[in-house]
């Protein structure tokens, strides 16, 4: 007899769970429909070397295109002009400078080709105006200051082409500063004298200095040099995951003093320290042995490596989840407050976790934020309000120069 008493209770619980989940989805949809959401880092332009690649078409492969952004309620994206670190001499500087220019132009072409759904954004005012018109705002960031070479005038050239941040270095040291992950260790003792000039020039022009990827010493040197707030366009919290790419709590507190923002990176290895995984290591090593230095490869081979890398990760890696992403957001909010945290996916550059593999699934982060009690106002800040405040301040500082 007892069982009959349980049934209504179970039914009641199930209906309540169902409706709560539905309510969260509904609430997330409503929020995305009324705010500006910004992702500060994707590497999608790596695919633009293929002249037929069209952001306006939904792709099976890859994380970011306009249809996926529309589906996921993502309204603004910083498309990265990514230049891998290579030799540091005049002829190499010229080669990568031209490669950077080509990528800038390819982004312009891809956005202009889709003028019915997207528009290039150069200012905070642009972003909100474009959002209001119902279109996607396409910002540009330069990932790695390497193509500047020794030629400071290139900073303005990139600014004029739309770059609104420069990530000072990538995985290796360059002439601007030390990287957090160069096996060679420290070389410039942080920010070099050229680096100081680059930061000042970016302040003068109105570009956000991006401290993702740079070493701890470089980070603190940047904060001593800059007259405007800075961003970490795609970095997570070292207290939760020990990668040197992530920011320590001390760095977070310094970032708060600077008025800047950390944009939590949703790349699995920066969210959760990976367990030993020999099968994955072997497959990745085989790939590396077969193709050698990625940066030295011709474009068509790079594309093959990217596809194979993704397949291996999908098959063998244990991925972080949306909950891990929001754990990092929670931690950053606890340490530096709600006004200094945002999201930088690193999509198409390794970013993506279970539950949020592409721009089409962005709302799952919002749903988890709602589940943990974040208000609409707080979500508005995390999803773009904070980074737009930083960019506005950067624009003001440039205006005063
Ligand atoms: Zn990166």
Largest sheet: 6 strands, parallel
What would you report as the Rg, rounded to the nearest angstrom?
Answer: 21 Å
Average pLDDT for all residues: 94
Shape: globular
Q: How many structurally independent domains?
A: 1
Structural class: alpha/beta
Spans of at least 5 consecutive residues with low confidence: none
CATH class category name: Alpha Beta
Amino-to-carboxy terminus distance: 81 Å
Question: What small molecules accompany the polymer chains?
Answer: zinc ion
Helix-strand pattern, N to C? HEHEHEHEHEHEHEHEHHHHEHH
Describe this structure in words.
- The protein has one domain (35-275, 318-400): TIM Barrel (Alpha-Beta Barrel).
- Strand 1, helix 2 and strand 2 (76-82) form a beta-alpha-beta unit.
- The protein has 401 residues and is α/β, with parallel strands linked by helices.
- Helix 7 (216-225) packs parallel to helix 8 (249-258) and helix 10 packs antiparallel against helix 11 (299-316).
- The longest helix is centred in the first third of the chain and has 33 residues, at 2-34.
- It is built from 14 helices and 9 strands.
- Strands 1, 2, 3, 4, 5 and 6 form a 6-stranded parallel beta sheet that branches. A 3-stranded parallel beta sheet has the order 7-8-9.
- Zinc ion (ZN) binds next to loops.
- Residues 143, 213, 234, 346, 349 line the site of zinc ion.
